[in-house]
Design goal:
21% strand, alpha/beta, three-stranded antiparallel β-sheet, 342 residues, single chain, 11 helices, 11 strands, Rossmann fold, six-stranded mixed β-sheet
């Protein structure tokens, strides 16, 4: 099994696009200054030793060096010792709404990002329970099957968004049905579904699906994201444009506490607001901790071998290559005319 000991360092990859942007800005600024000094024909004579390609080669090498160092910092590890351990817990399926309405900003930073924060906070308070993750909009998809490896859920959460599902909408009933069949067949294990949504159900019979789940011994909890007064749905972060209806009016997405309460009641669970304090979520955690735990055996890796040094060696080799590549033209290669323009 592969994992990162320090996955938070992977966020440093976000710096690479800025490095590329800075490189292009430097190139454009350099070109502008040179053109203000002399025309192109004279520049070709004055700086004939400059290579057109080597700066880009060195940029690629720099990006590869950065990537290798970031991965090394993240601490790649491979499981080396597999053992059977006894655990005691329940099965929990997180069902996350990723419809466009979850981008509304009536809670900060928006409903979807707040929902992700709630899942992380709940994972921090779970121990030996098995968890899974389903995302839904017009369709539902199982993203993480039941597992005790909470890091699998944490790693996936940052990339989850409305673009993961082509068919938009809010089919709560389908997501409940998928969650129900994604649990194990062991009827002695307590099971719970935690739905995190704004409750705008326009597609199917979510209440009926909740009743079926309850009949199969599955409790359903709902966490409401947003406010009853609602907010517009931004189309992009780069503009102030919002989603409009066919008449050109801005669509106001409102959280539906009535729908979410009815689903939770039918599922013999509880509804809480997710837009206020994290302490409200403790009501669900207290309920889950009160459910009877089932002991089970699981094969887990109890020891891991560090592999970061492979990436450090790769970075070192790339640095040496970079040092020996000059940005000037190579006279010998220029004579060979391997590159047009060299």
């Amino acid at each position: 099994m592969f994992r990162f000991a320090n996955p938070e360092y992977l966020w440093l990859f976000l710096a690479i696009p800025f490095v590329i942007i800075l490189f292009w800005m430097w190139r454009l600024n350099r070109k502008k200054k040179l053109q203000s000094f002399a025309d192109n024909q004279l520049l070709d004579v004055l700086i004939k030793d400059d290579s057109k390609y080597k700066p880009f080669i060195k940029l690629i090498l720099s990006i590869l060096i950065m990537s290798s160092l970031i991965i090394a910092l993240a601490g790649p590890q491979i499981g080396s010792k597999l053992e059977k351990v006894k655990r005691s817990g329940i099965e929990i399926m997180f069902v996350l709404d990723v419809s466009n309405s979850m981008l509304a900003e009536d809670i900060q930073p928006n409903r979807l990002e707040r929902a992700k924060q709630i899942i992380v906070r709940m994972l921090d308070n779970l121990q030996q329970d098995k968890v899974g993750l389903i995302v839904f909009a017009g369709n539902s998809f199982l993203q993480v099957p039941l597992t005790t490896d909470y890091s699998a859920v944490r790693l996936l959460l940052p990339i989850i968004g409305p673009d993961m599902i082509g068919l938009q909408g809010t089919a709560l009933g389908k997501s409940i049905d998928l969650a129900r069949v994604s649990f194990s067949e062991d009827k002695t294990v307590k099971k719970a579904i935690i739905i995190i949504s704004d409750g705008e159900n326009h597609e199917d019979d979510a209440v009926g699906a909740a009743k079926v789940a309850a009949e199969n011994g599955i409790k359903i909890y709902t966490i409401g994201m947003g406010s009853p007064s609602g907010a517009p749905i931004p189309l992009s972060k780069a503009s102030n444009d919002f989603l409009k209806d066919k008449d050109g009016q801005v669509v106001i997405s409102k959280m539906s506490p009535e729908m979410l309460t009815e689903i939770a009641t039918s599922g013999k669970g509880k509804f809480v607001m997710g837009s206020q304090r994290f302490s409200d979520i403790s009501q669900i955690l207290n309920d889950l901790s009160g459910l009877q735990k089932k002991q089970f055996d699981e094969m887990v890796y109890t020891d891991y071998d560090d592999k970061f040094y492979y990436f450090l060696w790769a970075a070192l080799v790339l640095i040496i290559i970079d040092v020996f590549i000059s940005e000037k033209r190579n006279p010998f290669l220029s004579k060979l005319k391997l590159f047009k323009g060299e």
